[in-house]
TrEMBL record:
Keywords of the record: Oxidoreductase, Signal
Protein name, UniProt field: FAD/FMN-containing isoamyl alcohol oxidase-like protein MreA
Biological source species: Echria macrotheca
Signal peptide start and end residues: 1-18
Family under the similarity heading: Belongs to the oxygen-dependent FAD-linked oxidoreductase family.
PROSITE patterns: FAD_PCMH
Length: 622
């Protein structure tokens, strides 16, 4: 039997390229998703019309249109777009503009509010432009009580569509494609490498797509059970609240403000439930989206299987704008959690690293019991004293069971003769597990590595990984954050297999992140040369980890923007297939982001050759 009824509507304008010839409205569609662009809309403004044909291969455009170039639409054209959109087009100034007396937005009290809201609140999330990692935009307008320099738009988009309906999304997609404008999708702006910002761009903002519905019984292939239909703009704290209200478990980030169904889910998505229910992308049963040709469609195991494959782990960016998802809803779940810490241990001896080897090797037992942890090894700035803390979570285990599972670990650590702090496990509901209030803007650079189980199972290889970590921390001076996890296909369940999730995830026993907080060229007095040097220094140290885990990969959502051989590292053996889907779905190269499938064809011409989004997007020189 077919898994669900599809309401097939004849398309008003046949979407042209690679489509089935009609637009379908999925059964699980919100009201705003059933109202799409009409013939009247297109008659009133041809610029919002669907693509009539794939691009003419004889005509190659070197760059995307840019403000100030003749190609850039006139104010009148933007005003017509705004009219088509019913007035939701924004032309926002950076929030920091309130601090610059040269700007019309100047307002000292507003400036003070911006400064405090960026410290640690949910404040910046309602800003249409702000990015969590300011260097990615070139930080063109830093708020300060007495700012030096001028405030400009830099690598922040010029226009933003504040979408509350599929029609808005379609109009934004069609207009950007028809006018050769750089197109950006932004949800929360939490991305670490600038995938949700871009100079001279039209940005589609999904933040206000907040719908949420429980589907008591959803049937998909061999599976049937409760599910949730959720808008792409929901954030972790909203999803956890909904879990508590509806007495269900959903896979969602723990950190309060990360988007649960945007880039997080599309890139894989890990949480404390990863060894219990798999990746966030493993939860997906159907995805509603607007594809690059402007049509609204649904992807599931039966419809548009190429998109269903790609959007579960292959990154949202290249394939369309997700408007809502159907994800599995599991029964309510408790976690037993404990904190273990080793403080201020001198690196002069090997004791700290002996303890780390004991702790990390135990990670196999943690994930085999379907648990996870969050470890932090923090060197002091002088790198002579080290701190270690970890939170270990066991979903579905009682505190007693968790305690006996951890007893051998505690005994081994104590046998080393070191002082450890080890809490007796406490129980809490997953629904209540929300960390933080909001993300502070922070100029960190990231790099990461998925550590395969095979390296843990081999004494020599395991010693190699531990020695690489030690070099990164002691010699490099970088803090290291590890998460033991095992999102195997077994825990993922249906329809986890045949997804684009990085195959390295399935083999992994740990995801290891290395941070660099050295100031970037957007900070006063730091040159592009120094910025490049800091990046290659970080990458040079991460090479120790890469070399100790040859053939593994890196998690695309928490990665080095300059990851070597990134196609292999982020997407593994799926890359060629993903690139074919990308070329087929988006022959216009409308969707682009650094490190995304197909992104090698275009380059941002940024000042100083830095990997920021502060420059015009042009074809990569061959
Ligand atoms: C404080 C903090 C904690 C984090 N914790 C975790 C964690 O626990 N687990 C984990 O796996 N990751 C975590 N991350 C990393 C997180 O997965 C990435 O930052 C991710 O990019 C966030 O996705 P977003 O949609 O919220 O952000 P955005 O920056 O808005 O978007 C990220 C990317 O997804 C694209 N995108 C977003 N929405 C859509 C959509 N609807 N359709 C198409 N494309 C879309 C954007 O274009 C962009 O490329 C954390 C990040 C931060 C800053
Ligand atoms: C779009 O129209 C609305 C309502 O008319 C207006 O408030 C807004 O400023 C316009 N946006 C732009 C970019 O002009
Ligand atoms: C975006 O739209 C939402 C929903 O209509 C509205 O509440 C919000 O104020 C808008 N944001 C901006 C910056 O205009
Ligand atoms: C929550 O769900 C569980 C199992 O799914 C059930 O046993 C329990 O009674 C429910 N609690 C409430 C308050 O509905
Ligand atoms: C080391 O750990 C102690 C207690 O666990 C904490 O108070 C201190 O801030 C930590 N230091 C660093 C540099 O992380
Ligand atoms: C390193 O820093 C720590 C914390 O600031 C301090 O206690 C210690 O004495 C320092 N060690 C050296 C060798 O400077
Ligand atoms: C452990 O802590 C005690 C008291 O806090 C201290 O005397 C002892 O030297 C510590 N041991 C080690 C190995 O650090
Ligand atoms: C989960 O823990 C809460 C207390 O935090 C308790 O009331 C509830 O019964 C537990 N539920 C399960 C399924 O263990
Ligand atoms: C990593 O391996 C490459 C290739 O074998 C080698 O050139 C490089 O020096 C190694 N780097 C580190 C840090 O071990």
């Amino acid at each position: 039997m077919h898994h669900r009824t599809l309401l097939s509507l004849l398309a008003l304008v046949a979407p042209s390229h690679g489509q089935t010839g009609y637009t379908t409205v999925p059964l699980f569609a919100y009201e705003h998703e059933t109202s799409q662009i009409t013939l009247d809309d297109i008659e009133a403004n041809r610029a919002v019309g669907y693509a009539d044909a794939p691009p003419d291969p004889a005509v190659t455009v070197e760059c995307k249109a840019f403000p100030g170039t003749p190609e850039w639409p006139s104010d009148a054209e933007w005003a017509r777009l705004n009219a088509s959109l019913g007035g939701v087009l924004l032309k926002p100034a950076p929030a920091g503009a309130a601090c610059y007396s040269s700007r019309p937005e100047y307002d000292a009290s507003r400036c003070a509010a911006v400064l405090s809201s960026q410290a640690l609140t949910r404040g910046f999330l309602d800003d249409p432009l702000a990015v969590g990692t300011p260097w990615t935009s070139g930080d063109p307008c830093p708020p300060a009580l007495k700012p030096a320099g001028e405030c400009s738009q830099g690598g922040l988009p010029v226009y933003v569509v504040n979408a509350t309906s599929v029609k808005h999304v379609q109009m934004a997609v069609n207009f950007a494609r028809n006018k050769n404008i750089r197109f950006v999708v932004r949800n929360t702006g939490h991305d670490f490498v600038g995938r949700s910002t871009g100079a001279g761009a039209l940005s589609l903002w999904t933040h206000h797509l907040k719908d949420f519905d429980v589907i008591p019984k959803y049937v998909s292939g061999p599976a049937s059970g409760p599910a949730v239909h959720a808008g792409a703009g929901l954030q972790a704290w909203e999803v956890h609240e909904a879990m508590a209200k509806h007495n269900i478990t959903l896979v969602a980030p723990t950190f309060a403000t990360v988007g649960a169904f945007g880039g997080y889910l599309a890139g894989g998505g890990h949480s404390s439930l990863i060894s219990y229910h798999g990746l966030a992308s493993d939860q997906v049963l159907a995805i509603n989206l607007v594809t690059p040709d402007g049509s609204f469609t649904s992807a599931d195991p039966v419809m548009n299987p190429d998109l269903f494959f790609a959007l579960r782990g292959g990154g949202a960016n290249p394939f369309g704008v997700i408007t809502s998802v159907v994800v599995k809803a599991h029964p309510p779940l408790n976690l037993s959690s404990t904190v273990l810490a080793i403080s201020n241990l001198d690196t002069g001896t090997d004791l700290f690293w002996k303890a780390m080897a004991v702790y990390f090797r135990f990670g196999r037992s943690t994930v085999d019991a379907r648990g996870t942890d969050r470890t932090y090894i923090t060197p002091y700035s002088n790198s002579t004293v080290l701190n270690f803390t970890t939170t270990i979570d066991f979903p579905g285990l009682s505190p007693q069971a968790a305690s006996s599972l951890l007893a051998p670990l505690e005994a081994s650590l104590r046998a080393l003769g070191i002082n450890i702090t080890f809490q007796y496990p406490t129980v809490s509901r997953w629904a209540d597990n929300v960390i933080g209030e909001g993300a502070a803007l922070r100029d960190q650079r990231f790099a990461s590595r998925l550590i395969p189980r095979a390296t843990y199972d081999d004494d020599a290889k395991f010693a190699g990984v531990m020695s690489a970590i030690r070099t990164v921390v002691e010699e490099g001076g970088y803090p290291v954050h590890g998460t033991h996890m095992a999102p195997t296909l077994r825990v993922a369940g249906y329809p986890g297999a045949d997804s684009a999730a990085n195959p390295a995830f399935r083999e992994a026993v740990m995801h290891l992140v290395v941070y660099d907080s050295a100031p970037s060229s957007t900070s006063p007095g730091v040159t592009a040369t120094a910025d490049h040097a800091a990046r290659s220094r970080l990458s040079g140290y991460v090479d120790y980890l890469r070399n100790a885990t040859v053939g593994s990969g890196s998690y695309v959502n928490e990665a080095d923007v300059l990851e070597p051989d990134w196609q292999r590292s982020f997407y593994g053996a799926n890359y060629e297939t993903l690139l074919q889907h990308k070329t087929f779905r988006d022959p216009w190269d409308l969707f682009w982001a650094p490190g995304a499938v197909g992104s090698e064809a275009w380059t941002v011409r940024a000042a100083g050759g830095l990997p920021t989004q502060n420059g015009r997007l042009c074809r990569t020189a061959v």
